């Protein structure tokens, strides 16, 4: 399983760059894990990138799992009622 981590902001200011990074990561294997523990801030643009990556992985018949959701990520997912929508295990501390 290939792993990658996002650190810092996942916002409108970084979404385009992160999208490019994640698209390259998506090409690195068929079973992938994205560590979200170091995401310090996320907005709707960041959420769109995460949704897009899940959709693209499914389209390519790849498994993409999000793990170690930071507080910032969980807040956005909960606000949008999407915590369970990705199908990833979320551990609340």
From TrEMBL:
Q: Where is each STAS domain found?
A: 1-93
> What single Pfam family name could you report for this chain, choosing any that match?
STAS_2
Q: Which InterPro entries match?
A: MlaB-like_STAS, MlaB_ABC_Transporter, STAS_dom, STAS_dom_sf
Gene3D superfamilies linked to this entry: STAS domain (3.30.750.24)
Task: Output the superkingdom of the source species.
Answer: Bacteria
Q: Which CDD domains match?
A: STAS_anti-anti-sigma_factors (cd07043)
Q: What is this protein called?
A: STAS domain-containing protein
């Amino acid at each position: 399983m290939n792993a990658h981590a996002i650190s810092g902001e996942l916002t409108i200011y970084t979404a385009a760059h992160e999208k490019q990074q994640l698209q390259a990561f998506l090409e690195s294997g068929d079973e992938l894990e994205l560590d979200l523990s170091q995401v310090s801030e996320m907005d709707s643009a960041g959420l769109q990138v995460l949704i897009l990556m899940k959709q693209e992985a499914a389209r390519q018949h790849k498994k993409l799992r999000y793990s170690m959701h930071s507080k910032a990520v969980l807040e956005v997912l909960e606000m949008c009622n999407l915590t369970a929508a990705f199908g990833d295990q979320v551990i609340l501390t």
